[in-house]
Amino acid sequence: MFASRFSKLSLVGACAFALTLSACDSSTTGSVTDTSPTLLPAAAFGMDVESFPNGSGPSVQGDNHNRAALTVGLVNLAVGIHLVIPAAATNAATQATPTVENGTWIWENTVPVNLQNVTFRLEGTPQGSEVDWQMILSSANIGGQLHENFVLYTATSALDGTSSTWSLYYNIEGQGRTRVLDADYDRTGAQHELTFSIPDTNPNEDAHGASVYYMAEGNTREFDYQEPTLGQNHFIEWNAATFVGSITAWNYNNGDRACWDSSLNDVSCVPTL
After folding, report:
1. What is the mean pLDDT of residues 182-199?
2. Residue 75 and residue 134: Cα distance in Å, rounded?
3. Is the whole-model pTM more than 0.85?
4. Which of 153, 219, 248, 269 pairs as cysteine with 241 (C-beta 3.0–4.6 A)?
């Protein structure tokens, strides 16, 4: 069941293919660099699982670490394939000088993704204490499907960029523009949290209700994958500096917490990392 659910979730990704404002005249069109709303951060589009500890070979890794590595790797692949284009385009927007038209801030640029150039227009419209966003692809071939003047994602963020929610869309063959992924991002001081969830509009009905939570603060990392069935969680924690960690999964070690040390060998668990 563990492998099949991950395989189904991975197929979803494969089919899909991942301030403060100064007052201004909303009717003005021109180049502005110091009053635009804060763009969505790169951290809102991906989990830093590169910090997950990996040894030099299977001989030095215990079963606990290996099971956690498999879980983190497969879930990150399933989610991450959705995020390649939105992450690349949003990052490329930071290299463009915005203009403003009728109160909407606009960033336009072209970025190479998977051997093709993706031209986009990112629009941000301040609305009170929030900003409404939409990322529009001028033209791109994604998974064999043409995306022309296509709204790739919509989002709402705080003016200072510390929190945001967004929904991601792709042109799914036979279904047109389809919402495939939702996310919530929040940063408080040195801590940031990110939750991805599979909406009921996703073409893979077996994945509906699945979600993954990721938290980073200092060297502490938490990763919690919830399968579509309530209660089937895989909670993994690790220290990016010492490499020690643990996994608590409904279908591993009788559901009890299982730990590894700095050499990635199985050890008895202690209360904290």
Report:
1. 95
2. 26
3. no
4. 219
